[in-house]
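Recall the central idea of this unit: under ordinary conditions, the amino acid sequence of a chain determines the structure it adopts. In this exercise we apply that idea directly, starting from the sequence alone.
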Amino acid sequence: MYHVKGSPHAGLAGATIGFFFGFAAVSLFGPTAKTLKDLIQLTPAEVGLLVAMPSLSGSLLRIPFSAWVDKNGGRKPFLVLFALAVAGMIGLAFILQTRFPQDMGHDIYPWLLFFGFLSGSGIATFSVGISQVSYWFPQKRQGWALGAFAGFGNLAPGIFSFLIPVFMGSIGLPNTYLAWLVFLIAGMLIYAFLGQNAPYFQALHQGALPEQAREFARQLYPEEAKRQELFPSGGFVHTLTRSAANGHTWVLVILYFTTFGGFIALTAWFPTYWQEYYASSAGTAGLLTAAFSLLASIIRVPGGSLADRMGGGRTALLSLSVLAAGSAIMVLADSVSASFLGAILMGGGMGVNNAAVFKMVPDLVPEAIGGASGWVGGLGAFGGFVIPPVMGKFVEMEGRGGYAHGFSVFILLALLALFFAYMQNRAATASEEG
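Accordingly, the structure predicted from this sequence is:
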């Protein structure tokens, strides 16, 4: 009746690969921040704003673009975000090719912020991909599928945090950004080839009425593990307003702000932290940052499976407790080994909680997954923009000691998130018992 391209696993693979390339923008300025700071004469707060700028577009654009998935299916929003990111990278590559290193005056700082903002559009592919993958898989496999999507896609910042200093040492800073532009275009082309909408949306695009498309999608795959069970309940405005009216959405925003926003913030901030606080080389700082980022990313895969077994609420409580402990170690640490231990605990706690949150999205807000994913992913990722400048202010006020004391922000955020996770979990338990 209707022709469907792709399969659940192919849809997962396409979205994951696309997100991997787009999400690399988290590391856009972090590994190069010290070089740019010295050349342009930036203050710590200006450095914090610079490394956070890609997260501004990467967070705010998640809200409308994720909601767009409930109408379109995801492919078109994904490609539009890629196009914006490519435009930003072209601008950055042009500036560095024409101004580096002799003509790097402070006048280029606003342009770096602007093109960094555009480049961060690729980060917003996360919420689009989350919604797109959710529609491909039945509810009982959401934890695994979304954990795999986010876990493998999230590897990009860690890998790029390590590769950028290596590329800088071999081909120079301007050519490093030029190479990144090539990688980004390659990612867009791969997604354009592999990324497909779930069967319901493909049937709609071929002229089916909504009820016909639902029935077709339900019957397409005989195996229960592949069957599409989730369907949008309305259009763009409807999915945003309906998810906003659900209180669970805002608890998940708080949890995600703490751990995913925190993950983005630290992936951008850690290269500066290791170089300035411990006088590490750029290569060592990149390696230590990559260890944190890779762990926080890959642990989302088993974290998603754990959430399938334990439940998202209990998994969140466990992971946030680990985050609080790691944050306390970072505040008190006075050696690289102690700080590295704290960073690893923070990364593990963040990664598992990120998986738990998106296990809970289709469970708690099944009537508006795209809208809920947009609010949670967008406002949650906004932490990646807010936190680095705050940590930079600690440094401006206290000097070197501010690099350690800035991590007290994460202790407060973890305790706040623990409170809301506990209250939500208790309410869910009471509802089940009632």
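The chain has one domain: 8-433.
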